[in-house]
């Protein structure tokens, strides 16, 4: 069910009063650097946790079991993500950083099963031996996980740069993005409970990648226009959600390309 991450539910509604947009240019640049530094740190935590879980049999079985926990598991997942995202919005620096780090760990824990399944699917399709599977490192460009990560970095980076440098206003996209998100989420939840199979199609993954691209544009601008200087951790968490969800569906898109 990780394909239908509820992380977006935790996006924090930030008032415009006191936003960094009202500060001087140097303060805005400093805020942006801090946001992306924290985002990079959260990415490292997410990647490290994912790798740790994938390579640890006990943790992997725990993650796989949790993902198959049914409705109760989903409710706990929603609650945990929302709680941690609220922590990132705390005005206390230590608490917000703890929330961001814990959120990166949770995202990594929930991403690991998909990474494992993708790696094993590739191993089966290429009829690799057990020893060859072990050498299919994430740094290997033939690994489908690596390909998805590189593509996500390219798309995310390009869209972020465009959002920060363009004069176009993407605030109009908010309603359409949320409508698309809830529509796809509903399809995913129905598929999870065996009602229809829309979430298992190539088109579903492609639609989610496009949707998250829209969120990258909107969220990047929204951070600079609405977030106050002391909510850099919350801004970084928002970007992490966008990246992780795009990566997950990019990976599923590559898995379904044949």
Number of helical stretches of at least 4 residues: 9
Order of helices and strands: HHHHHHHHH
Low-confidence stretches: 1-10, 129-137
Q: Tell me the radius of gyration.
A: 18 Å
What is the general shape?
Answer: globular
What profile does the largest beta sheet have?
none
Mean pLDDT: 83
End-to-end Cα distance, whole Å, is 22 Å
Q: Please report the total strand number as a whole number.
A: 0
State the helical fraction: over 70%
State the secondary-structure class.
Answer: mainly alpha
Give the total of domains.
1
Share of β-strand residues: under 5%
Main attributes of the structure:
0% strand; globular; 258 residues; 9 helices; mainly alpha; disordered N terminus
Structure description:
With 258 residues, the protein is mainly alpha-helical. It has one domain (2-255). Helices cover 73% and strands 0% of the residues. The protein contains nine helices and no strands. It has helices at residues 25-54, 57-67, 70-88, 93-125, 130-134, 144-165, 174-192, 202-226, 232-255. Helix 1 (25-54) packs across helix 9 (232-255). The radius of gyration is 18 Å and the shape is globular. The protein starts with 24 loop residues before the first helix and ends with a helix. Mean pLDDT is 83; it is low at 1-10 and 129-137.
